[in-house]
Amino acid sequence: MALPVNIKQLLEQKTVESSRIDYKAGWNPEPIIHTICAFANDIDNIGGGYIVIGIEDENGMPGLPVKGLDKNAIDDINKDILQKCNLIEPRYIPVISHETYEGKDILILWVPGGNSRPYKCPVEIFQKAKSGKAYYIRKASNTIKANPDEERQLFSLANNIPFDDRPNTQASLQDISLPLISDFLARARSSLAIDNRSSTEGIALQMGLLDGPAEQRFPRNIALMFFSINPEKFFPYARIEFVDKPDPAGENMTEKRFSGPLDSQIISALQFIRGYVIKESIRKLDYQAEAIRFFNYPFAAIEEALVNAVYHKSYEIREPITVTLTPTHLEIRSFPGPDRYITDEDLREGHIIGLRYRNRRIGDYLKELKLAEGRNTGIAKIISSMQENGSPDPIFLTDSKRIHFSVILPVHEGFLPSDDTLQQKKRRNKEELKKEILSALTDNGRLSISQLASLLGYSMPPSSLRKAINELIKEGRIEYTEKSKRDPNQKIRLLIK
User: Fold this and answer.
1) Is 222 exposed, middle or buried (0-12, 13-18, 19+ CB in 10 A)?
2) Is the peptide bond before 336 cis (omega within 30 degrees of 0)?
3) Could you tell me if residue 411 is inside a domain?
4) Which of 93, 109, 166, 422 could cross-link to 51 by cystine, CB 3.0-4.6 Å?
């Protein structure tokens, strides 16, 4: 059975992280069954993994020259894999694909995260006396036996299938578009070719897009997100909204919506942003021959932030992803916020590393289309792109209840309006400013004064902002989070009475 991925890119780890690929020189049942069990348990919700039989492991990469398998032995290996998989409880069968790489025959086992986890298998497959069974998991690039704490984690995940991998009982096979699947496979350069004889059901089954018995198949949510004409029919507000807000009062706004399959949303929104938002400046300096070039916003930072928003959004929450442009910054907001193990300090420092994925299948598909990169690289790329452009550091915000997550990209100082222009645009009376402060804190939770100033459109906190803050504190409506005003962690929050 062919796989819905590009085999060459898979083996060279261009679309899948090395921790999700296990290379085996030959068919060695015991460690391979342990690894099937580990990938099926998918303790970190990263989407399972792939086992490549016929290629030696060389420091986590495919060893060259490729050893390959005896073509005459492949049928027997296939049968033995199916037989040994019966030892896994509950029973789990991976997708097995016979492929050719570097002129050699190999087998690739695709092991998606299972829907009936946790899975366990014999510790010693060939031991006649009962050696007991164990739960196996992946840690980095290793298959290990789960310890008691990890076993408890597995059981807590038993009924917690990631939303994008769940069957949708409100949809049917007719809601999936075969042309959209065909287009995706072509762009991903998959070996799973579609011809005139292909049926939607047959292809969807090979891609793991359906769930349930033959008499009652339901599309998984991932199928509807990528291969239905109108995903919002099943996931209301599953779209991207762009707002250009040139004036703090909201006058003369420009709005645009991007809907349809998730990958189409991303591509359309990014094309629009590249043409509408991105501006370049070339500045000649007296002391050097070369002119310096910079952008109001580095496109790579916007691209990474928007793709991350689509990747990590909860599609159970009826809120769109919003991109808001102001004269001083661009903000990308999605719902919900990061998990609580990511602290406020992590957010402040940009150390946002996910331990578990909300959408394991969405990430795989975005990587196949080269719209997303490896695990936990997005925040680092946003920061480095801003630094390389000479822009201020990005700001990562969430509220105290982790309802939303915002990435704020300040505009390059070379594109800031003049101070006179800024003051004209942001001249508010005291009561207006106090209302905007309370609104910003309601939407974003805790904010430093500089973050608050940026959100309100100031390049630097003006004295009027500080006076308004002090009045609100005296009125008992807001408060500082730390005792010392000079504390580097100092922020402002609403005072809950």
Assistant:
1) buried
2) yes
3) no
4) 109
Cα–chain center distance at 381: 14
Residue 149 sits in the same domain as residue 25: yes
Q: Which domain holds residue 220?
A: 165-233
Which residues have CB under 8 Å from 444's CB, separation 6+? 397, 398, 399, 404, 406, 451, 455
Which residues is 398 bridged to in the sheet? 405
- Which residues fall within 8 angstroms of residue 465, CB to CB, at 6 or more apart? 433, 437, 449, 452, 453, 456, 458
Please tell me whether residue 492 adopts helix, strand or coil conformation.
Answer: strand
The helix-helix angle for 299-312 and 262-276 (nearest 10°) equals 160
Q: Cα 179 to the chain's mean position, in Å?
A: 25
Alpha-carbon gap, residue 106 to 93, rounded angstroms: 18
- Per the DSSP assignment, residues forming a β-bridge with 396 are 407
Helix axes 430-444, 463-474, angle to 10 degrees: 70
Q: Residue 213: which residues within 8 A CB-CB, separation 6 or more?
A: none
Per-residue 3-state assignment (H helix, E strand, C coil) for 237-300? CCCEEEEECCCCCCCCCEEEEECCCHHHHHHHHHHHHHHHCCCEEEECCCCCCCCEEEECCCHH
The DSSP output letter for 103 is T
Do 281 and 390 contact (CB within 8 A), yes or no? no
Asked, for residue 290, whether it belongs to a domain, the answer is yes
Tell me whether residue 331 is exposed, middle or buried, using C-beta atoms within 10 angstroms of its C-beta: 0 to 12, 13 to 18, 19 or more. Answer: buried
pLDDT in tens, the chain (497 residues): 678 888 888 888 777 888 899 999 999 999 999 999 999 999 988 889 999 999 999 888 888 899 999 999 999 999 999 999 999 999 999 999 999 999 999 999 999 998 888 999 999 988 755 679 999 999 988 999 999 999 999 998 877 888 999 999 999 999 999 999 999 999 988 878 777 678 899 999 999 999 988 888 999 999 999 999 999 999 999 999 999 988 766 667 889 999 999 999 999 999 999 999 999 998 876 666 677 889 999 999 999 999 999 999 999 999 999 999 998 899 999 999 887 777 777 777 766 665 567 788 998 899 889 898 766 677 889 999 999 999 999 999 888 788 999 999 999 988 886 654 444 445 677 888 898 899 888 878 888 888 888 777 776 788 888 889 999 999 999 999 888 877 777 889 998 76
- Report if residue 405 sits inside a domain: no
Residue 94 CB-density burial (10 A; 0-12 exposed, 13-18 middle, 19+ buried): buried
Structural domains of the chain, count: 4
Whether the model clears a pTM of 0.85, i.e. scores above it, the answer is no
Q: Among residues 489, 491, 483, which one has the least CA distance to residue 453?
A: 491
The full DSSP string for 106-143 is EEEEEEPPPSS---EEESSTT-SS---EEEEEEETTEE
What's phi and psi for 241, nearest 5 deg? -115, 130
In this structure, the answer to whether residues 15 and 123 fall within a common structural domain is yes
